[in-house]
Write a structure and sequence with these properties.
By secondary structure, this protein is an alpha/beta fold. It has two domains: 198 residues, Alpha-Beta Barrel (TIM Barrel); 124 residues, Lyase, Ornithine Decarboxylase, Chain A, domain 1. Helices cover 31% and strands 24% of the residues. The protein starts with 7 loop residues before the first strand and ends with a strand. The protein binds pyridoxal-5'-phosphate. The site of pyridoxal-5'-phosphate has 11 residues, from strand 9.
């Protein structure tokens, strides 16, 4: 790639393919793979990533909200798309766009059956979600009989899969809890399948679940962060390649004297003669104000420069007193060696939050 001459998010599709292959190598050949492309494919670009995953032969995609799925359908994505958190008002759009809803409560099931009937659907694919301990969305184990009675009363929907979500798959100190989730899910899903009288796919693991709990792969696995290059552990991170690199450029360099301040509210004061650089990326681009005042950092010509003062909406300033650099030089916010995970850690957050925050204002460029 040429050096950045404005703020860009570079998306390395070769790295995505590498991660896809690596995750595939962790599952049996008969286990399907679902790629999670919610939130603009974790802040990158949902359409490009979905199409690329489709070309790689992914079995399923998932988004969080209906609108995200509609965008993919409108851009020609053909693989099945699971909508993880559909809202009742979007059920018509779900059916019109051949999206497949996660059904997580009797209220949702009832409404969806109503809409499917209304649109004269037969055996429309739905996915039944069990809550096994995350306590976010899902039926409880003792809802099975009620679900069955709702399903037996209609032929407009058909259960294509049954799934659940792990709460702490990356944390081996929570192994007992996770194993309990897995066994509860095994039990509830078996009971549901027996009572349904037809078979249905089952899936439970996210990226860390794929890596840490092979016994929970069932018929399909769901991977998000792994595709984008993070494995939630030092050893897995080594095997994966971060897909997104956030780069920028030095707009201006200032020489300031002791006692001068930098940025809004004058929160940084120079302790001597210093050199600062202004970078065209701010909190509106996804670098939150938490990174200001010495917490966050960027890299210039391989050297680490800390963010000084408050992060502005469209810019931030860094201290480059000891760094050989000029206006127009490339700035690395994160890339495959100075990772988003490291930068996220500087403010006590995780790679997921930092990469998904990169706003749509930032230009995306693809390396193929
Ligand atoms: C976001 C999400 C995933 C993907 O999780 P990763 O940790 O990014 O692999 C899987 N399943 C559900 C239900 C999700 O919401």
């Amino acid at each position: 790639m040429p050096k950045a001459s404005e703020t860009v998010l570079e998306i390395d599709l070769k790295a995505l393919e590498h991660n896809f292959d690596y995750l595939k190598s962790k599952i049996n050949p008969n286990v399907k793979m679902l790629g999670v492309v919610k939130a603009f494919a974790y802040g990158s670009d949902a359409i490009e990533i979905a199409k690329f995953l489709q070309d790689l032969g992914i079995d399923y995609l998932a988004v969080a909200y209906t609108k995200e799925g509609v965008v993919l359908r409108e851009s020609g994505v053909k693989v099945p798309i699971l909508v993880l958190h559909p809202q009742l008002m979007n059920f018509k759009a779900i059916i019109d766009n051949c999206l497949e809803p996660s059904i997580y409560s009797s209220r949702v099931l009832n409404e969806f059956i109503g809409q499917a009937d209304h649109l004269s659907q037969k055996e429309y694919p739905i996915h039944i979600k069990f809550n096994t301990g995350l306590n976010r969305l899902g039926f409880w184990e003792n809802d099975v009989d009620h679900v069955i009675s709702q399903l037996k009363a209609t032929s407009s929907v058909k259960v294509k899969s049954i799934f659940s979500h792990l709460a702490a798959s990356e944390d081996l100190l929570e192994k007992d809890f996770t194993l309990r989730q897995i066994s509860d899910f095994t039990k509830s899903s078996e009971e549901l399948i027996n009572k349904l009288g037809y078979s249905s796919m089952r899936h439970m693991t996210n990226t860390s679940g794929i890596l840490n709990y092979p016994e929970a792969h069932f018929d399909m696995v769901r991977t998000g962060i792994g595709l984008y290059g993070f494995g939630n552990s030092k050893s897995e991170n080594k095997k994966l390649k971060p897909v997104a690199s956030l780069k920028s450029v030095i707009s201006q360099i200032h020489m300031i004297e002791k006692g001068e301040s930098v940025g809004y509210n004058r929160s940084y004061q120079a302790s001597g003669f210093e050199k600062t650089a202004t970078i065209p990326i701010g909190h509106a681009d996804g670098i939150s104000r938490q990174f200001g005042n010495g917490k966050g950092f960027v890299f210039i010509n391989g050297r680490k420069a800390s963010i000084i003062g408050n992060v502005c909406m469209d810019m931030l300033m860094i201290n480059v007193t000891d760094i050989e650099c000029s206006e127009g030089d490339e700035v690395i916010v994160f890339d495959s060696s100075n990772t988003a995970e490291n930068l996220a850690e500087s403010v006590g957050t995780i790679s997921y939050e930092l990469i998904t925050a990169v706003s749509q204002r930032v230009k995306r460029v693809f390396c193929r």
